[in-house]
Amino acid sequence: MKGKAGSVPHNEKQKQEGHIWGSMRRTAFILGSGLLLLVALWNSVTWHLQRFWGASGYFWQAQWERLLSTFEGKEWLLYILGATQVPVLFFWTVSGLLLVVDTTGKPNFISRYRIQVGKNDPVDPTKLRQSVHMVLFNQLVISFPMMVWLYPILKLGGDPCRRELPTFHWFLLELAVFTLIEEVLFYYSHRLLHHPKLYKKIHKKHHEWTAPIGVISLYAHPIEHVVSNMLPAMVGPIVMGSHLSSITIWFSLVLIITIISHCGYHLPFLPSPEFHDYHHLKFNQCYGVLGVLDHLHGTDTVFKQTKAYERHMILLGFTPLSESIPDPPKKMN
Question: What transmembrane ranges does the database entry give (predicted)?
């Protein structure tokens, strides 16, 4: 007996179900195999790092105890040096090296890695001087007092200058939590600052640089510096009751990564700055750090249609990605 018009024959229906189940099994097998491989790789990497950490752990513990003895009774001063001065030293060392390239164009080969070709070549000295003044203001008048204020809050959850250093696996867990918290807080505070009323009065200052350079990573209105730069990075150590060593490494990493994100060069073996560089170019895409929330909220859909998205990877060679994955030729009027 023939089936009714528009109905699916029984055999055809069975074939479709079999195809669906087959696809699901293949997907489960691929994902399961990938997960097992990832876990095995992760365990191998962490085992080797743990051996290194353990072997050098006695050395670092001894150095830390020596510091504690030197600053006995003045642990707050040790905290200030570790939580503010060390990260700032990293910031100005990395930014300074990039500023040499931005202002002199030397060494010449680095210009091949420029993301927005023809921009900041060379950088406007007046605009740069004004930006550096703003960065120094934010560091001295905003960041420093906030980090001092953070010390008594941290002590509520445990002494950040306690004698025992964190274990390797605990430190990895802290970094994961810090990164997750920063991603969430930065993404939503950043999107909020793009509200027309807030953008015009606050966030527009940071976007004066449509082609960013490293040092302007902290060039922002003071309100933005508090809400979007400082707080997302500070909340993680508060939640985890972190040791000063973890705090120092975390803030140093945050500053180095934000410099790389703004540097304007897609350099070999470093994290890709294409994502945030595109945000400065277009304003309404790529609000986060990792891109996870941008994917969930669809705020990277235009970016994913560009060559910049294809170049958004770690460059593992010395041929610039702008040469191996060039932009399409501009249409002539």
Answer: 28-49, 76-101, 135-153, 168-188, 247-267
